[in-house]
Amino acid sequence: MICQATAIHTEPFFPISLPLEGPADFDHQRPHLLQAARDYLDHYQKIIRELHQAGAGGRRVVADTTHMFDVLITTLFEAVAADLNQGRFGKCTLIALGGYGRLELNPRSDIDIMFYYSGRDRAYAEKVSERMLYLLWDLGLDVGYSVRTQQDCLDIVEKDVTARTALLDSRYLAGDATLYEGYRKEVLTVVFGRNSQAFIRAKIEENDKRLQKYGSSVYLLEPNIKEGEGGLRDLHSALWVAQVKYKAHNLKDLVIRGVISERERQEFEDALDYLWRIRNELHYLTTRKSDQMQFNHQEKIAEFLGYQNSRKGLAVEQFMQDYYYHATRVEHLSSSLIARITQQEKPSTHALGYLTRRQIEAGFYILRGELRVSGPEIFRRDPPMIMRAFFLAQRHQAPLSLELKGLIRDNLGLINDKVRRDRTMNEMFFEILRSPRDVGKTLRVMHHLQFLNRYIPEFGRIFCKVQHDLYHTYTVDTHSIFAVEEVLKLRAGLYRDKHPVLTGLAGDIEKPELLLLAVLFHDIGKGEGKDHSNKGADMMPTIARRFGLNREDSRRLEFLVRHHLDMTHISQRRDLHDEDLILQFARSMGMSENLKMLYLLTFADLKAVGPDVWNDWKGMLLQELYEKTYQVLEKGDFELEKRSEKLRKRKRNVLEALTEEFDPRMVREQLRALSPRYLMSYRSAEIVEHLRLSLGRGKRTLALHVEHETRRGFSEVTISTLDIPGLFSKITGVMAANGINILGAQIHTRSNGEALDILQVASSGGSIENPQKWQRVEEELTAVFEGRAQVGELVAKRRPPAFMTERPRPRFPNRVDVSNEISAQYTVIDVFAHDKVGLLYTITKTLKDLGLYIGVAKISTKVDQAADVFYVQDIFCQKIVQEEKIAEIKQRLLTCLDDG
């Protein structure tokens, strides 16, 4: 048993001597028994829930729930056996197993019981179990059961590690007490004693598989409070291993045997109490047993626990930050205990050098492959030696011993502002960052031991910090360390084939340690609320002074943190063919080194957000922005280039390439219809292909060409047709109807009335290379353009039926921003909305109805949140400047988004 239960201080709803009506046989009494049991459960479940809602701790509710079922089950057992003639061999005892055996029942937990009988009493045991189980099932209870003899139990001890584990938590409930005593001596002795090393290895293997299934990171978006890392099962696994190793039945036994301290016992009990309280509420919230804390559950649990929205963040974010903090403590408690046990289990068959103490410098030595210290006073005398421990562990590739980890944790309080400014300590930290190996591993250990929180107090403010959305998979601190590891992978050449430009830059940075600091600190302002880029940047001068950085490095660190979102924002949501925009961005960079480091930081930030956030389309946009900006920084402003000469040369090249295929007069007419902006946006070879498509269309309604960028994960679709009102809206509708996601769009309307729309599209699996699909798209586009099909009807067929409601997710208010400052030619509309089928069609149709023409569309989706941008003009090819019209645009778009 893991804990000691406290009973409900009330009399059982019905005593063992249940008054019977009519004949005494079970069949006649069963309806009365069942009704009495129902009344009992209804009564006491209500009382326990009220206790929970009034603030009772997790332990109290779990203990009361267990006691309630003990009274029910023992009473039922005696009632079902009352009219059976036990005779000489009629012996059966009822034993609680698993969580029920540990006295740990939550409101909707399974009830695991075993009917244990002597080998000759099978018929009796089966009759009792049959009567009992049907009663429990009729009461709507989830019951796990078995009917076993001594030999059955001994057989499963050898074969089934899960069943053996359940027997570890055995507890007598009812029936023949003498038989249970025999079970305790003959079975439990074997359960605890036989083949303990094999059992411990099997449990650790089982533990690893569980974490692979339910998530091996504490910081999952929707953690499983029972099976996930940092959950109840972590504590149980450690305690099971300890029970078998030390033949202990509970935490108190482990203290008596000197395995854990009284403080550790209290930490285990506090951790269980915290998790039980949350699990109790989760069980009450759900109509079925559930241990997954989904987003809507998190919000309700936060409210139940009394969290409130504040400057620190949303109530749910504060709750989850506390939950993740407790989960890290649970993981530390359980892994430390298991490590302590497995260290003793390791066979001593290693080479002699492995078992020999090797002194590496004063106060530090390596034994059994682990770094150790000569005594606990080393840190008290000289606190910067804590950093020395991490430095030596990295240099010698020797992990910190369990004792050394505990010593570091116990001495974190020694790290004050004077220690943080210690020159030797800071130099060692920078040496760790400069090292060619194990930088990420070392930072992870520093983070796990909460050393980073003490050494860099500002980093402590983002410890376990949560962002309540589907986009950010990890807590802010973990994301920051993952981002550092992405830069290290570039530096090590692991991305050489996929990202050659970035790999080259990573090896070319003057001060790689400064870049790693910027990556580690880029989100540090999130501990202070909104506008985290500026708040984080404002912290950099203080941190830099503490580290002893010079003024230039301090300013660069501040610059990188302040601007770490710029490249993502511009590449994904702004027109990269806008020369003024590129020029303005280049000026903000100041010098090439800033641009290079910001590019690397942006890549690392996106890669570390979550598994599905980075894609090659975003990578291509980032690289395009980097290369265009770098060219400006190295060669000067666009104005320095001979723009008019460049345009004339480009037209000559196109004319020469197409003269043999088409009438030169027709080619010249097409060239005259092209805008200077279009001509500057594409290379000569691309313009040739566009005009070849347009000239080859003849009298057909449209010509469509698809190129597949398989390695980059998207397809590019070029559509040539005559311009008609709402053309782009019709195109987006047909794409939505065919399950095609639009990533970006460039819309070109020529002065001769022709339209050329270029779209980058993808499906969930990347590029779309099914020729039948593209044939269907072409047919549907033609039908829509010719008025033979209604695009709205096509989209409606694609939408899921109303009864297929999606699971509740965090939702943010729809937002529309309109700006005339971003582009010299266009009004720019930013739309933020919850993504759904046909969203882009809905928006573009509304823009068409408003009389607006779209020149550029940038489509970006963060998991379930769309951030779409439209560069628009009115019918006179002018910006929209009237305040009333801008207000109408906002209102109409918000209405269409809300109405769906």
Which helices and strands, and how do they pair?
Elements lengths: L25 H28 L4 H24 L10 E5 L1 H4 L9 E7 L4 H17 L4 E6 L1 H10 L1 H8 L2 E5 L1 H17 L2 H19 L17 H15 L4 H6 L5 H24 L9 H10 L10 H31 L6 H4 L2 E4 L2 E4 L2 E4 L3 H5 L3 H12 L5 H9 L6 H4 L2 H12 L4 H10 L2 H5 L1 H4 L15 H16 L8 H7 L5 H10 L10 H16 L3 H12 L3 H8 L5 H11 L2 H16 L8 H20 L7 H16 L5 H9 L3 H6 L2 H13 L5 E8 L4 E9 L4 H11 L3 E9 L4 E9 L8 H15 L5 H8 L16 E5 L7 E8 L4 H11 L3 E6 L2 E2 L2 E9 L9 H17 L1
Parallel strand pairs: 2-3
Antiparallel strand pairs: 1-2, 1-4, 5-6, 6-7, 8-9, 9-11, 10-11, 10-14, 12-13, 13-16, 14-16, 15-16
Describe the overall structure.
The two termini are 55 Å apart. The protein has 4 domains: 169 residues, Beta Polymerase, domain 2 (2-Layer Sandwich); 133 residues, Four Helix Bundle (Hemerythrin (Met), subunit A); 199 residues, cca-adding enzyme, domain 2; 186 residues, Alpha-Beta Plaits (2-Layer Sandwich). Strand 15 and strand 16 form a beta hairpin. The strands form 3 sheets. Strands 8, 9, 10, 11, 12, 13, 14, 15 and 16 form a 9-stranded antiparallel beta sheet that branches. Strands 3-2-1-4 form a 4-stranded mixed beta sheet, with helices on both faces. It has 40 helices and 16 strands. It is α+β, with helices and mostly antiparallel strands and 900 residues long. The longest helix has 31 residues. This is Bifunctional uridylyltransferase/uridylyl-removing enzyme.
